[in-house]
Amino acid sequence: MEVPINDFDDIRPLNNDEVKDAIESLIANEDFERAFRYIKPDVDWKQFCETMRSFKTKEDFKNKLAYEAVMMVAGKTTFSLTISGRSRLPKDKKPCTFISNHRDIVLDASFLNVMLYDVGYGMTQVAIGNNLLIRPWIETLVRLNNSFIVKRNVPVRQMLEVSKVLSAYIRHTITETKESIWIAQREGRAKDSDDRTQGSILKMLNMSGDKDILSNLMELNIFPVAISYEFDPCDFLKAKEFQQKRDDPDFVKSQRDDLLSMETGILNNKGRVHFTLTSPINDQLAKLDPNMEKNELIAAIASIIDKEIYKHYRFYPCNYVAYDMLTGTRRFSEHYGLKDKKQFEDYLQGQLDKIVLPNKDEAFLRTKILEMYTNPLKNFLANQE
């Protein structure tokens, strides 16, 4: 499927010719300055502006300022940030489509990129929904930082065309510009941590190919990544949203809610964070029957991605404690001590106390948070059977 390159202009990252103007617009934006000072209160703004103006390319910006900012967040809000499976990366740095489960709006791709950079593979282009581009300066910043835009909530009659352009852009990036990309396995986060690859994502990726489904997806070199956070700073916000949707089926989050989720996820404690690079799935795709019915084939491909993620999670005492609390058993008691159990119980109550609702259903909210910490373990166990 041919899509004119000009059609990518409103979704692609900025190019190097646009860097200077983008930086000047950021420096002049009071909201950007306020946001940066919030993260780094002691910043020397004049010196920071001079540093910004020294960046002539996207690579300069990403490898210096963006890298430093992400590592600063990691240093302040994680106990550790680690990655395994580096030996599975293509030795020739062949571009990959990294598909992962999704925990944090901003940091999943950011953490992955700094760790890929550290091991010499290089940073990816990152898919980001336009629903998060709440301020013009945010769009400028993410496109300067090599993100491309996924248009959400478009009218049904436009959805097909939007998906075709996005698919063509991703294939162009992998096959022509030879850059890897990161995209979440589903639209938005799995708020209950029951991670499932959406078939619609795979159908979108297939649209731009001119061969059969398996060949089209194999050309994109899909590489699942399993993300494990010890603590999710937004767990209480997700639980709150579950109750709001339970009580009002028409409830829709506001832009303020999205901003709060981004801020909470970036600035608060995540404990240990681990990324596992699984393996590209082309060998597994090659074993599937290309004559399967389309939806059945898409489901089989999604299942391959899911199983790679499930078997590569990393678990912490809180996951085992949550499982036993939720099920009323002591199945995993050998994986935690009394101190671990007490610490998680205190953490859980602290998160529940942050939820403000007029008809707060604490039992329901408690269950939803416990499910968030239990579901990855349940999926891992089911994958072993």
Automatic annotation (TrEMBL):
Keyword Acyltransferase: yes
Stretches assigned to the Phospholipid/glycerol acyltransferase domain: 82-227
Record's keyword terms, sorted: Acyltransferase, Transferase
InterPro entries reported for this sequence: Plipid/glycerol_acylTrfase
GO MF: acyltransferase activity
Species of the source: Parabacteroides hominis
Full protein name: 1-acyl-sn-glycerol-3-phosphate acyltransferase
Pfam families in UniProt: Acyltransferase (PF01553)
Signal peptide: none
